Fold PA0069 family radical SAM protein.
Amino acid sequence: MFTFCSILRSTMTSPDRHPDFGARGRAARTNRPGRFERHDREAVSDGWDIPEDVPTLRTTVDLERPRSVITRNASPDVPFDRSINPYRGCEHGCIYCFARPTHAYLGLSPGLDFETRLIARPEAPEALVRELRAKSYRPAVIAIGTNTDPYQPIEKTHQIMRRILKVLRDFRHPVGIVTKGSLIERDIDILSDMARVGLTHVGISVTTLDPEVSRAMEPRVPAPARRLQTIRRLSDAGIPVRVMVAPVVPALTDHELEAILEAGAKAGAQAASWVMLRLPREVSELFREWVEEQFPDRAARIMGRVRSLHGGRDYDPEWGKRMTGEGPFADLVRHRFAVATRRLGLDQPLTPLRTDLFRPPPQAGDQLSLF
Ligand code: SF4
């Protein structure tokens, strides 16, 4: 039996949450506080040898009313300057997710909280309309899914992504989507309309073809074969698709690079990309705990390889290096990717999306302005 030796300060974190709560079906092993929390909790034995039922963690969803939804960035190593996040947190729960540290800004843990305490922004489509109608707005590709997945399971209920897509279609605004969720197939009707005029393409991330590794690493993401089927369905509907080997996990999945690219090409992908495993901030410790539990025989090798990519550290956030790492192993992956994509005809980027079609649709009262 365990007791808590202190209470969490956060207003959003339940005081009844055990820091090492039952994590069945989740990737993070712990719920350690984020870097802004002033107090930690630690489970200590009270000496009673009484077996406890550890409750299963359920997913909860809070709502947020955003004043604006388009987030700008000036990062020189990402190919877009704006993005939208319909949700905060992601129930897909990939252990390697580099968005985990953003949960610390909410007073929540980048560990289990990130996978279970989600925030939906149901009024995001209306906020988007306001932003796109602003006289000063200039169109450029909006990226969706580059932080948290817009097609995570709660989208089925909330349908925020679908309503955002309808807005973008009505405004003829270009959008690039990244997802692992097969729920995107629900929106093929909208996406194929947009693709027909060069307003959308999709990246589907396939990290491994091994369902067991995937289940451990990305517990609530559709299985690899299901993601390949999504590539096929999008491609058959005329939507350009890129297969993303993202991330490559050194000494765990890197040997699958060519096989994933081949499977993606066979499913209809027209382009490909890769990103090396990134372990920023709290993700480093969460990943280490996970890999030591799930792959104890390989953990030291995996972490050693990771550090060899970043000059002896778990992660180097420097622009230009953070996506690939550097050194012989990074060079080898880069070379293998180049050879395989050339052989498979995946070595060209997708056709750039169009911005010249942007046109706010008429709204009530517009006619009056003619007189
Ligand atoms: S699907 Fe993407 S956003 Fe969601 S947990 Fe996995 S890596 Fe993070």
The CA atoms of residues 96 and 287 lie 6 Å apart. Residues 63-344 form a domain with the pyruvate-formate lyase- activating enzyme fold (CATH 3.80.30.30).
